[in-house]
Amino acid sequence: MNKISSKTLQDLEFNTVLIQLGARCTTELGKEQVVTLEPLSSKSDILNILGQTSEYLASYSNDNRIPNHNFDTINPELKLLKIENTTLEVGGFKKIGALCNTVATHIKFFVKFKEYYPLLFNVSDAIILNPDIPRHIDSVIDKFGEIKDNASSNLQNIRSQMVAVKGKINQSFASALNTYHASELLDEIRESVVDNRRVLAVKSMYRKKVKGAVMGTSKTGSIVYIEPEATLRYSRELSNLEFEEREEIQKILNDLTNQIRPYAEDLHAYQDFLVHMDITASKAKYALEMDALLPEISENRELYLRDAYHPLLFLSNKYKKEKTYPQTITLHPKNRIIVISGPNAGGKSITLKTIGLLQVMLQSGLLIPVHERSKVCLFDNVLTDIGDNQSIENHLSTYSYRLKNMNYFLRKCNDKTLFLIDEFGTGSDPELGGALAETFLEVFYDRGAYGVITTHYANLKLLANELPHVTNANMLFDGKSLEPTYQLVVGQAGSSFTFEVAQKNGIPYSLINKAKKKIERGKVRFDATIAKLQKERSRMEKTGSRLQEEESKARTEAQKLEDLNLKIKTKLENYQELYDHNQRMIYLGNKVNTVAQKYFQDKKKRPLVSELLRIVETENSKRKKQSAKEVKAQKAKKAKVEQEVIKKVEVIREKKKVEKKKAAIIEKNKPRPVFKVGDRVRLMDGKAIGSIDSLEKNKAIVNYGMFTTNVGVEQLELVERKNPKK
Question: 492-545: per-residue pLDDT in tens?
Fold first, then answer.
């Protein structure tokens, strides 16, 4: 891949993205280096860096957070290590020790979780960790940054003597203090400290009665500070020992520096590794803030940006709590170039910058704010002509500059180029400039380049309709309010709404009418036709949206009516059954009543029993017929229900298959949990839940209460973590 020019990066405001990235770095070296990032020239490097950033982003949403990578720069220490006979300070050794420990922590972490972060593991695996560096430092310097007593036998001996001398100083001073205090030669404060030495606070009138060295007086002169004569000898001895201690410490630091000096290259590599982690973390934080992700990288020449946001505009509006409108752009071999037209302030330039900035960010190893189903490809070069770019230094007009830029495009443009041109052909006579722009566009088209341009020229709109792999597009405008909707509509050219916008902004209609007469009637009619088509399209979209809403409401109402009708029908059937049952009971009651009346009159039991038996047998025969009908009806109903259930089951199975595929994809991308003894788990294709009794390598013994089983860890899914309190 060719190196993308600095002009392209400037046109697309890539430096602003880098400044925002730098603000999210935690180390000074990270802040310095991130602003120098440029698009990478190797495809493998791009994919590798993008993968690392994506892995770091994933760490924010799982339990295995990457350790803190903060450190203090050791560049001054590395410079000193390159110079012979130099000595590092204690603070420098502390920074080096902390750096080594941070790198060691990262290496251990990525070894443990290399399945989750394979690309970041590869970066850490290239670092050769040298345990001798922190070991040498820890043997000399303690955690408080002090030289240890046992750093050398000589230092230990000196410090032992110092402790003994300090004891003698305190003892002799205490003796003198008690003696002179008893003689009432001391002031009320009795003692003080001067030049880090204990002194007696002697009343000035008795100064000659106290033997010792005068160390100073109070502001008023009423007190003289004297170090007792008995203490002086020990103080001189202590000063000599302190000098020897400093000399010994310097010697120890010299030796330690010489021990560390051979590892200067390793320390440089450690620092570079942590700077890389800092920059990767800043990219992940940036992606998290704007919901960015890694889209599919296509091997084919295909660019599909779905719901793409301009990163700078998105973050700016996010902080202002304003809405940002996404764009959807598709470029492929059958549709290589898009010509966007329409009025100014409709979002054409933002759409152009969105495509370019996202492409440059992606090729610099940054995730981009697009829909997860987006698809991107890599270009060898990205060429831009956005903005006025008038050059005062070179005495170039806008048009001269643009012609110079087009000459550069002609030299660089090929089938692996993405070109983005704003207001193509402007800056000169409309007809002549338009004709030249048309010629340039034909050359870019013939070379197989991909690109997006914005224009007001009618001839470019017509050319886009004539060329098979070029498409017209426009930024949708509300024809009534003349307000932009910031929606890109592909397939139709847009009107500039020149006169309509002028009228909205208060230009008198008489002047607008006069202007219309000054231009060709055909051009006015052409623009008016496009404007009319655009208004019709906008109106049709609104109508279509309204009809969809009404259709949805009608379906909902129809479903409600159908459910209500079914309930009413069921109730009527129940009422009919109840009525028939009551009628039958009345009929039987009348018959029994007649037999009872007859028995009441003649008192004959035999005819009574005979008649009652006949009534019962008649009713039972009816029941048999009824039960046969019911059984038949129930069978038919059951068969119908079974068919309905089978259909529903098939639908549910299809849904489950789709959900299972989605779950499999999610599960595939989802980091595997790290199991611990006591965790409640189940097999991926099972329902029984058990607890882990033990773990060994990639095997786990799962206890189900009645029995235990030995299964692979990859077959288990986590149900509940072990409660740490238990």
Answer: 655 555 555 565 566 776 776 666 566 555 455 555 566 666 666 667 777 877
Whole-number Å distance between alpha carbons of 474 and 456: 11
User: Using an 8 Å Cβ cutoff, are 269 and 333 in contact?
Assistant: no
Best CA proximity match to 447, nearest among 484, 395, 410, 400? 410
**What are φ and ψ of residue 191, in 5° steps?**
-145, 165
Same domain, 448 and 596: no
Residues 138 and 160 occupy one common structural domain: no
Identify whether 675 is part of a domain: no
Question: What's the half-sphere exposure (Cβ side, CA atoms, 13 Å) at 34?
Answer: 30
- Burial class of residue 701 (count of CB atoms within 10 Å of its CB; 0-12, 13-18, 19+): middle
Cα–Cα dist 462/434, whole Å: 12
Q: Roughly how many angstroms between the first and final C-alpha of the chain, as a whole number?
A: 59
Question: Has residue 85 been placed in a domain?
Answer: yes
pLDDT bucket at 394, cuts 50 / 70 / 90: very low
Asked if 83 and 45 sit in the same domain, the reply is yes
- Sheet containing strand 689-696, edge to edge, reads 708-712, 699-703, 689-696, 680-683, 716-720
Residues 408-420: pLDDT tens digits? 888 888 889 999 9
Q: What are the pLDDT digits (tens) for 414-453?
A: 889 999 988 876 655 566 667 888 888 889 999 999 999 9
Q: Measured between alpha carbons, how far is 1 from 665 in angstroms, rounded to an integer?
A: 33
DSSP designation for 330: E
The reply to whether 220 and 274 lie within a common domain is: no
The answer to whether residue 511 sits within a structural domain is no
User: Can you give the residue range of the structural domain that contains 231?
Assistant: 152-244
Average confidence score pLDDT of the chain = 83
Pair (471, 438) in one structural domain? yes
484 and 362 fall within a common domain: yes
**Farthest CA pair distance, the chain:** 159
For residues 464 and 296, the model is more confident at 296
Q: Would residue 491 count as lying in a domain?
A: yes
Q: Which two tokens stand for residue 538?
A: 């906008």
In 3D space, the residue among 366, 363, 355, 359 whose CA is nearest the CA of residue 308 turns out to be 355
- 323 with 411, same domain? yes
Number of domains observed in the structure of the chain: 5
Do 160 and 47 lie in a common domain? no
